[in-house]
Amino acid sequence: MGKNAIVGQSGGPTSVINASLAGVFESCKNRGADVVYGMCNGVAGLLEERVVDLSTLLTDDLDIELLKRTPSSFLGSCRYKLPDWRDDEAVYKKLFAILEKLNIGYFFYIGGNDSMDTIGKLAEYGERIQSDIRFMGVPKTIDNDLMVTDHTPGYGSAAKYIGVVMKEIIRDATVYGTKYVTIVEIMGRNAGWLTAAAALAKAEDCEGVDMICLPEMFSCPYETPNFPVYAEPGGGPSWQTLSGLAERYQVYLSAGSVPESDENGNVYNTAYVFDREGRQIAKHRKVHLFDIDVKGGQRFKESDTLTAGDKSTVFETEFGPMGLCICYDFRFPELARRMVLDGAQVILVPAAFNMTTGPAHWEILFRSRAVDNQVFTFGTAPARDMDASYHSWGHSIAVSPWGTVLNQMEAEEGMQITSIDLDEVEQVREQLPLLKHRMADL
What we know:
The protein is α/β, with parallel strands linked by helices. Helices cover 31% and strands 22% of the residues. The longest helix is centred in the middle third of the chain and has 19 residues, at 155-173. It is elongated and about 75 Å long. The chain starts with a strand and ends in a 5-residue tail after the last helix.
C-alpha cells in the first residue's frame, strides 16, 4: 500500500461491526500499510484529531479474534453528517489537512447510509482537489439498502432464513382446501432485498410465494434531489431487473415505487406491477405529490423535482382485482373510492410515512379506507433507519374490510404473517351494503 490507512465506525452499533473493523485492519497490514489508524468516534473525532494507532491495541492474533466477537463499536461511533462542501468547505479543508498530516492514502468508513454518504462526499471533494487518497465504504451487518453496494455482510444468511421460513409457511398454509390468502410482511429498509428473498422458497418441493410487494422509492434515498439522479425511463435497467425477477421466480411483483423519467424530462414517482411471466400489468404514477410543512415537524416538497400523475390504477390478478396507489395518494378518499368502483377488492399502498405523520395518521388511514370502501388495505413501508436522512415510521400494516388491524409491524426489520379470505369482501358488503346505499348525486 505504501502509505498509512485510517478506519472509523459510524452510526448505530451492530453485532458484527467490529468484525468489519478486524477485516480492514488485517487486510491493510497484509497489504503493506505502514500504520493503520483508528478514528475515535468517527469523523467527529477525526476533526478533533482523536486517532489511535491500532497496532498498539491489536498486538496479536488473539486480540484480533477477540475484537471480532466484541459487541458495540470498538472505536466509538458518531452520527455526524458532513455538510455539502459547497456550503461549508472549511470542514473539508480541515479534514484533508489532518489526513495529509497523518500521511493517509486509504480511508475506510464502516456504517450505514449516512456513512456511505460521508464517503461519497469525501471522495467527491478529494477528486475536486486532486487528492490521491482512496475512500472506501464498508457496510455493516446486512444493510440491504445501501446504494450501489456489491457486498452486504450477513445478507446471505438472512436471505436463506427468509426462504426457509417462507417454505414452511407455504406448506402449512396449503393443507386446507379453503380460499384463504396468506400475507407475509417482511420489513427491510429501503431496497427491500429481504422481502425479495421470499422468492427463494420456490423449488421442486414448494410452489413458492404468489406476490411480493416492495415499499415506496425502494431503489433510492427518499430525498427530493435524489429522484432525478436515480430516475430511469420505463423499460430501463431497474424495470428490466424487476420484470426478470418476477418471471424467474414466477411471482406477481408489486415493485414498490421508483423514480421514472420520460422523454420530456419529467420525473415521476412510479409503481410498476409485473405478473408471473414478467409482463407489466399495471403502472401507477403518484397523483398527489407530498408537499407538506408541519409546524414543529416534517417539511417535504416532492414537487421540487417530481411531476404528478393523473390516473387511478386497478389491475387484474388470478386472485381478483386490486387497486394501487402510492403513500400520500391514500389520504384522498376520492381516489380509493374510484379504485373500488372500478372493482378493487384489495388496495396495495407502497408508502414511507415519516415520524410526524406516521404516529398520527398511519393506522387510522388504513382502517378508514378499509371501512369506507369495504376492502382489504395493505401498507408496505421501509423499516426505520436512523442513519438515513429521512426517517420512516415503518409499521407495515394489513387491515380487513371490517376495519380490523390484522397485523402491524413495528419500526424494525422483521416478518409477520397474515391470512385473509377474499370472500370476506363480499360478505361484509352484503351485511353492511354501504356501496349500494351511497348517494352519488349528493
